[in-house]
Structure formats: structure tokens, C-alpha cells
Amino acid sequence: MKTFTVVAALAAAGSVFASPTPTEELVARASSTSLTAITVKGNAFFQGTSRFYIRGVDYQPGGSSKLVDPIADTTSCTRDIAEFQKLGINTVRIYTVDNTANHDACMSALAAAGIYLVLDVNTPLYSLNRASPAASYNSVYLQNIFATIDAFANYTNTLAFFSGNEVINDDTTTSAAPYVKAVTRDMRQYIGSRGYRQIPVGYSAADVDSNRLEMAEYMNCGTDDERSDFFAFNDYSWCDPSSFQISGWDQKVKNFTGYGLPIFLSEYGCNTNTRKFEEVAALYNTEMTSVYSGGLVYEYSEEGSNYGLVTISSSGTVTEGADFTSLQTAFKGTANPTGDGGYNSTGGASGCPVQSANWNVTSDALPAIPSGAAALMKKGAGVGAGLTGAGSQNAGGTSTGTATAGSGSITATATSTSKSAATSLQSFDKTPLMMTAFVLGMSFLGAALL
């Protein structure tokens, strides 16, 4: 739902990188937070040896009209983390960040609260244009999203990257799918080439009934370097009062049974009627957990569309709404299944969908990465554009051909040591520790109040 005007974009990180053949020494960053990194096994997420279910909210105070980075501001993120803890969530999704800002304090505070980040790598100025995807898929765009990867790959509570959000939003825009998939491939290759851990990368799709399954299959077909690490979609089909059958969720589970990647809801929470979040009980029940790995409720703060769980005043005061209490109650009353939730441990690739009236992709081949972006695999992205810059959609430096199968494989891997990571942490000094102490203190206070 939260989209840029004519855009979308991609993010990637590895689950099935090809074996690297080191040809030179590259420099990677080290991890700087304490949560156990989330991994992909079969069609599920795992935290160590335990199945991990996303229980989260979409978090972008200011919305699309007031572009801010909510985790570059220690005051606002501290305030909101206290509310996250009251909800009992373990994940937030952020749609836009400033890749030139320092996020050490807020990411450490999130980690101390047991909260992971799912991050969209695009901004309104640096994103794919669904109307002209070939022109917007260029080296300037990729440089900026690679810089965002650099800014967040060193945090172990970075759960995943979204390469795009609702780029394809009807049958007529499916021709943009190869560019979405190419960006995902490029991000995964960049993560592997820079020596980062295998951070899951995938796409957040619109819930378009006519091509939802085709998009999921497409993001999981082809060679290993081309496939995503997960698939997510924004789903508002359960409108209370409803049920597993009335909402059609039973059919979605049936259609996705056997799918080889983790699936989760990147947005949910229909507000047509009073929201009781009855769908929470279904989402974390074994009737769904063999296919789904949880989801993210839209959205934390009220931004003019009546989806907000809280209202944030101009002075920064948070007021919890009725939806906040309903979601808090639903989460508290719904435990995760015991064991592995019936997941598909083998995973596996899908077949690529064939061209049809609702799927206008004529070939399984992807555009080749622009040469300027390919060079960044060895030398790194450098400084990003932040929330400003000239924009990328018509910047030139586009793809000049079709990629050969396997061209996104890793050919050189960075070393695991990094002076820049140590310098970054030293420069931030004690603030992350102070933030962590504060959040832990709020945790005890919250527990005492419950």
C-alpha cells in the first residue's frame, strides 16, 4: 500500500549463492548488534535452530508525505520501541531510510528489545519506474541501493531486504517483472561479493489475484543466482468479522502449498470494519504455518488513512488507539505452534510461468547488470544519496543486453575484517549502550505494568 508515485524497487541477499572463486581481497564490514541472525531453511525462517515467525508492524512515521528516517532519530525510535514492546512484536518494516545516517543507536536499541528490521531499499528518488523499467534500471540506482545494503548489513538484526514494493500492481505492469528480478539478483550478488552474511532478500508484491501466483513462481524460478530468498505480499482480504474460509486464505494456502521459499504478509489488517485482528489466530496456526511465516500489520502510526495503531502529536506524544489494544490482545492470545510448524524442509525452485493474458513476460532471461554497477561488486558502492540527490530514474547507464544464466554468481568474496566497521562503532561511542540500557529498563517497567 505504501508506494512511491510511479515506482518500486528491489533488495537482495543470499540464500543460494554459488561457490565463490576468490580472485582478490575485498573488504567487508563486521556485525555490530547482538541478536541471532535469521536464516532461511526450506520455506521457513529460523533463529538458530528454532522456527521464526514474523510478528510485526509497518513503521514509517510521517508517511509518504513527510519523508523521514525513523531510526536515525534516537528520541523517536526510543519512544516507539517502548510501544513495540507493549505490542509484543519481534519485527518492524521500514519503507525509507537515509543511507548516509548513523543507525547504530536505534538498531542496538531494537536488538535489545528483541526486534528485527525488514528494510525496503528504495526511496522516491531512487527506485524502479513501473512505466519505464528499462530506463530506471541503471547504475546510479543500483549504486544507491547497494549503499543502503552497506549501511545495514553490519547489523545482525537486519532480518531481510525488500527489493521492491508493489512494482507490479495489475496485469498491464507485469512486463516490469524482469527488472524487479534483476535488481534482486544484483543485490544478492553484491551482498555475496562484499562478504556479508546471507541476509534474506525478496519482493513485496501487491495482492493481485490474477497474477499473484505467477509473480511468486517467477521470483523462485531459474538459476540459483536469480532466485529470491523469500516472497511476501500485501494482503487486505481478511476484513473482520471473517474466517479462514470466508477471507479466501484457505485457498491461498492451498495454492502455495509446496512453494519452496518462505512466504509472509508484508502488510495486512483490513480496516473496512472495526479491526479485531481475528486473522492473527489463523496466521500463527498450523493451518497456515506450513506455508506462511507470519506477517506485518499496517501500520504503526496514523498517517491519514485510518490504519494507524497510534497517533503521534506534533509535540511527539504517542496516543494508543483502539486498534493498538486489539492487536496487543490478539498477539498476547496467540502462541506460535510448537515444533517446526509443518514447514517444507527441502524447499526448491518453481517453474517459470508462461506468457498469458495476465502475465506479459515473454522470456525467462533477465537484463544484464549495467557495467557501472557491476564494477561496484569489487570496489564497493561508496557514499549513498541519502534522502536527497538528483534521482536515478533517467540517469543513464542502463543495461545493454541480456544476462547469461548464472551471471549473478559470486566470483570474489570480501575478507571478514574491516577497519571501517571498527571506526564506525568507535565513533558512535557509548550511545548504543545507553539506548540499550534504556530499552531494557522500559522492558522491566512494561512487564510490571502488564
From TrEMBL:
Pfam family, one: Glyco_hydro_72
UniProt subcellular location: Cell membrane
GO-annotated molecular function: 1,3-beta-glucanosyltransferase activity
Record-linked Gene3D superfamilies: Glycosidases
PANTHER family in alphabetical order: 1,3-BETA-GLUCANOSYLTRANSFERASE GAS1, 1,3-BETA-GLUCANOSYLTRANSFERASE GAS5
UniProt family annotation: Belongs to the glycosyl hydrolase 72 family.
GO terms, biological process: fungal-type cell wall (1->3)-beta-D-glucan biosynthetic process; fungal-type cell wall organization
GO cellular component, one term: plasma membrane
Alphabetic keyword roster: Glycoprotein, GPI-anchor, Lipoprotein, Membrane, Signal, Transferase
Signal peptide: 1-18
Source organism per UniProt: Mollisia scopiformis (Conifer needle endophyte fungus)
Native organism taxonomy: Eukaryota, Fungi, Dikarya, Ascomycota, Pezizomycotina
Function: Splits internally a 1,3-beta-glucan molecule and transfers the newly generated reducing end (the donor) to the non-reducing end of another 1,3-beta-glucan molecule (the acceptor) forming a 1,3-beta linkage, resulting in the elongation of 1,3-beta-glucan chains in the cell wall.
EC number: 2.4.1.-
Protein name according to UniProt: 1,3-beta-glucanosyltransferase
